[in-house]
Amino acid sequence: MMKLTAGELAQVVGGELVGDSSIILTGPSKIEEGGDGTVSFLANMKYEPHFYTCTASVIIVDRNFIPKQSYSATIIKVDDVYQTVSLLLSQFQKKEDNSHGIHGSAICDDSASIDKTASIGPLCVIEAGAIIEAGVILKAQVYIGANVKISKASIIYPGVRIYNDCQIGQNCVIHSNTVIGSDGFGFAPDEAGNFKKVPQLGNVIVEDNVEIGSNTCIDRATMGSTIIGEGSKLDNLIQIAHNVRIGKNTAIAAQTGIAGSSKIGSYCFIGGQVGIAGHLEIADHTKIQAQSGIGTNIKEKNTKWYGSPAIDYFTYLRAYSEFSKLPELRKKVYSIAKEIEENKDHKEL
């Protein structure tokens, strides 16, 4: 088990320590749980009440945080709590044993190029012409199709399938049971209404520093490439259709579906269960709220969208606020109508 003192942790994260620097820390904890010998953090101020009762030995806080009550923990003040937490967790992360070499049960075509520093796990299959570069780790039961290239230091977790001709960049992480390069959903009906498959001849290119969650599917292009841009992060259970292009450093949450040939800009944030229709363009820095449906191009950068079909985020919030008042408004309208009717009858008398 990894151990370090509060003073050592403060040095690692570049923080200002207030309290006992000699406390031994053995792991992280949530602020609402705590525990002796653990380090917690206060990043969202709605959790501030827990700060005063937390039993963690050390709590990381924003440099400008001023406690309103007494507290017992040693604190470390930092400039950015969220970024510090990422660094903190890395200090306690268990290192996996990834011995170099090819497991005896793996099946590797003789024409595949596998760097001697790569790690090929049990029951992996590597087809003809594949290239596995230095430091790549393939966990158990990974399938690598013909002519696939996995670039340096990428990690592919158990059960991932990467179809022929696809390319994975450096320092990528692909989690279990994801499928990359399956056929795009391309069918053309004939005169009788029977669907004829359109051959899917392209590939998928995943650029450097991309992370892809479990059970995500990224379809190969009909022609050309489906592209996942450098630094982008994809959650679990996402569907990316053929010829989609996603820009750099875009984050997409679970159960989102993007239809064919749409182009998603860089630095976008897309919430869970978002649906994006085909052949659309989404501008850089766009933010789309969860469960929204996008059916038109978004050409202006730095906009926020909500609803289905989606509209401007703040317009949606105002509209929803009025929508929630409709039952009360209905009563008032009926009351006014009744009063008008009664006054009318009174005048006739």
List keywords for this structure.
349 residues, alpha/beta, Udp-n-acetylmuramoylalanyl-d-glutamate--2,6- Diaminopimelate Ligase, Chain: A, domain 1, UDP N-Acetylglucosamine Acyltransferase, domain 1, 2 domains, twelve-stranded mixed β-sheet, ten-stranded parallel β-sheet, flat
Written overview of the protein:
Helix content is 17%, strand content 29%. It is an alpha/beta fold. It has two domains: 4-92, MurE/MurF, N-terminal domain (Udp-n-acetylmuramoylalanyl-d-glutamate--2,6- Diaminopimelate Ligase, Chain: A, domain 1), CATH 3.40.1390; 101-315, UDP N-Acetylglucosamine Acyltransferase, domain 1 (3 Solenoid). The strands form six sheets. Strands 8-11-14-17-20-25-28-31-34-37-39-40 form a twelve-stranded mixed beta sheet. The protein has a ten-stranded parallel beta sheet with strand order 9-12-15-18-21-26-29-32-35-38, with no helix packed on it. β39 and β40 form a beta hairpin. The radius of gyration is 27 Å and the shape is flat.
Short description:
With about 350 residues, the chain is α/β, with parallel strands linked by helices.
List the helices and strands and how they pair.
Elements lengths: L3 E2 H8 L2 E3 L5 E2 L1 E2 L9 E4 L6 H4 L6 E5 L11 E5 L2 H12 L8 E2 L4 E2 L4 E2 L4 E2 L4 E2 L4 E2 L4 E2 L4 E2 L4 E2 L4 E2 L4 E2 L4 E2 L4 E2 L4 E4 L4 E3 L5 E3 L5 E4 L4 E2 L4 E3 L5 E4 L4 E2 L4 E2 L4 E2 L4 E2 L4 E2 L4 E2 L4 E2 L4 E2 L4 E2 L4 E2 L4 E2 L9 E4 L2 E3 H11 L2 H23 L1
Parallel strand pairs: 4-5, 5-6, 6-7, 8-11, 9-12, 10-13, 11-14, 12-15, 13-16, 14-17, 15-18, 16-19, 17-20, 18-21, 19-24, 20-25, 21-26, 24-27, 25-28, 26-29, 27-30, 28-31, 29-32, 30-33, 31-34, 32-35, 33-36, 34-37, 35-38, 37-39
Antiparallel strand pairs: 1-3, 2-7, 22-23, 39-40
